[in-house]
Amino acid sequence: MPARSCCAVLPPASEAGVARLSHVKHGAFGPCSNPCMQRTTGDCGEAASSAPLASLASSSPRPPSPWRRRLCGAGFFACLPLKALAAETPLRIETIQSEPFGRLGPQGPSGLMYDIGMLIVQRAGLAAENHVVPYARTVLSLQNGTADMVLRFTNDELRQVAHQVAPVLQLPTVVVSRREAPVQRLEELSHRTLSVARSFPVPERLSQLPGLQLQAVNNNEHAIQMLMGRRVDAAYGSNLGLFGAARGLGLRMQALAPPVVVERQTFWLHLSRSRATPALIERLSQAVEALQREGAIHRLYERALEAFGDDRMPA
């Protein structure tokens, strides 16, 4: 049995494969407009003549210099379509490891955002690798170039290191408290403690409450553990994130008070600035728009909601 992995690889959906560059036939990618290429190779991928090197040397007083050959190679790659280049460099996706967005199980990685991410790149016809990683790591991965694409709520830190390509899914953000000590209005949090996942965006209507103490934690699971351990008075996050974490920890919905809805925030498709070319941005954006228009993303969200089986879950 193969070793368990946190990564899945998606081949390009549009073609079975792309021919190796050494096997490119004459005219396969159309004529090349690069004058350097035309001087030495004619159309992309074919030599201008099959004559021996000696006859080529006698007909040309100055053979191409090394720098010219390098430019010719660059011109060749400029003639390649995006599909061929994408096949050479799969898009590296990172999915947040938090229920129900991303998880690792006996059958491999899965989850709502994991599935949506794979659906987007498949619709765009791109090869991809999808890794499930800790929540806070996603920002660092986009920053240091080890990830190309992340689906999550945005914040100032993410805006600095990634391009926001398209809004993917809007979710309610909520304050959750214990059943025996319910928080029924936001004003009740004044001079109390609130746990929130590190780097999760907190709106001013919460952060500016008088005397509120924000306790940064690693993820939603940690936020719920702090709440149930009576170390904080409430936890803040998305509806699916907090209730999914509670379910993953073996808690029943009845252990929590009805949530207080704060606002609605959006999961965005973030693309690292090193990969954010206009062509790729357009391709991914069109894929997201098509999936939303067809209702595919919303159906995945509805399926995740149904798994909780509790009408107190704000949709």
TrEMBL record:
Keyword Methyltransferase on entry: no
Span of domain Solute-binding protein family 3/N-terminal: 90-307
InterPro entries for this protein: Solute-binding_3/MltF_N
Pfam families reported in the protein's UniProt record: SBP_bac_3
Transcription keyword on record: no
Protein name: Solute-binding protein family 3/N-terminal domain-containing protein
Highest taxon listed in the record's lineage: Bacteria
Organism expressing this protein natively: Roseateles puraquae
Gene3D superfamilies linked: Periplasmic binding protein-like II (3.40.190.10)
Keywords, ordered alphabetically: Signal
